[in-house]
């Protein structure tokens, strides 16, 4: 059994896909006067907002700063679409009950962690967390998870990282950490090669109950 279980947030603990993509669509339409399909924006899931904006092919007259500001504004107006995935709280309670160290490594900034995630009431389960502004490099680079291991004094071979994107998987494997796919939030689960794959939080909870 692992001693440390580390979670991604977006698409793993809370469902933010509708909020993030819809708000970016609206922001881009207002700033560029162009329509962007959801499929063309799905790459933003799992990486920091600033990194996502840099990957957009924006018209020359539109700045990244302008898009980022408008996107942040739209996220506030669409935050009501965010929700905790069913079964997550019960899963965290079971893992905590087994005496495991629980943590978070996320592409959210410290500000977003405090203002967007903390209100859901899940932070009480986590003893350590790492946000995008805690490290110079970000997922899929291994630095965020390595920083977490150092911060929590955990060992890579005793840790498991749960996430929903290929960036999460690459980050875990590059850091020498086993990866579990959060199938309930993954967009293209067939593209992953995880050590574990769970369709629902309840399935992972049953796995935890049977693990020693």
TrEMBL record:
The keyword rRNA-binding does not apply. The keyword ATP-binding does not apply. GO terms for molecular function: phosphoglycolate phosphatase activity. SUPFAM superfamilies: HAD-like (SSF56784). It holds the Pfam family HAD_2. Gene3D superfamilies: HAD superfamily/HAD-like (3.40.50.1000), Putative phosphatase, domain 2 (1.10.150.240). One of its GO terms (cellular component) is cytosol. Keywords: Hydrolase. This is HAD superfamily hydrolase (TIGR01549 family). The lineage of its organism: Bacteria, Bacillati, Bacillota, Bacilli, Bacillales.
């Amino acid at each position: 059994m692992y001693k440390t279980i580390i979670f991604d947030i977006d698409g793993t603990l809370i469902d933010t896909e509708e909020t993030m993509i819809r708000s970016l669509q609206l922001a881009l339409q207002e700033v560029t006067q162009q329509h962007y399909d959801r499929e063309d924006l799905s790459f933003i899931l799992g990486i920091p907002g600033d990194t996502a904006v840099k990957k957009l092919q924006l018209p020359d007259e539109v700045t990244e700063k302008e898009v980022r500001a408008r996107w942040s504004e739209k996220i506030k107006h669409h935050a009501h679409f965010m929700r905790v995935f069913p079964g997550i709280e019960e899963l965290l309670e079971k893992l905590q009950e087994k005496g495991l160290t629980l943590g978070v490594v996320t592409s959210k900034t410290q500000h977003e962690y405090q203002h967007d995630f903390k209100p859901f009431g899940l932070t009480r389960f986590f003893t350590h967390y790492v946000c995008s502004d805690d490290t110079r490099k970000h997922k899929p680079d291994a630095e965020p998870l390595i920083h977490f291991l150092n911060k929590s004094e955990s060992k890579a071979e005793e840790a498991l990282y749960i996430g929903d994107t290929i960036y999460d998987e690459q980050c875990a494997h590059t850091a020498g950490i086993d990866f579990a796919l959060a199938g309930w939030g993954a967009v293209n689960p067939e593209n992953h090669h995880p050590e574990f794959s769970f369709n629902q939080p309840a399935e992972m909870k049953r796995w935890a109950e049977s693990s020693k």
